[in-house]
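Aggregate trends can hide what the representation actually does to any particular protein. The sequence in question and its structure tokens are set out directly beneath this paragraph.
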Amino acid sequence: MSEAQETIFTKIINREIPAEVLYEDELALAFKDINPQAPVHFLVIPKKIIPTINDIAEEDREIVGHLYRVAAKVAQDLGVAADGYRAVMNCNEHGGQTVYHIHLHVLGGKPMGWPPYTEKLKV
């Protein structure tokens, strides 16, 4: 995958297609997911095209860390930070990645338990 390959996210960054933007700065953009999987579901993307987690370079550390800071700020703004939320980034086909421009899914507004972890551990 070429680093310069355009995706739906580059079109959102360039305002070629609409999105409900929640946050924007020089490094990142956060917007509501068009197919939400939770009451609160937004994406945080870098403005730099990085196709997969495997393509994150040493010089991208600031950008990737910044994505998590943006996620925390927007989660706070949307009122889900105190109760908690899930932040996940998929990688490649088997990891469920469908857009080859890294993006952090942030989901909240309801318990996000996964059955093995929602049951009390028996020691």
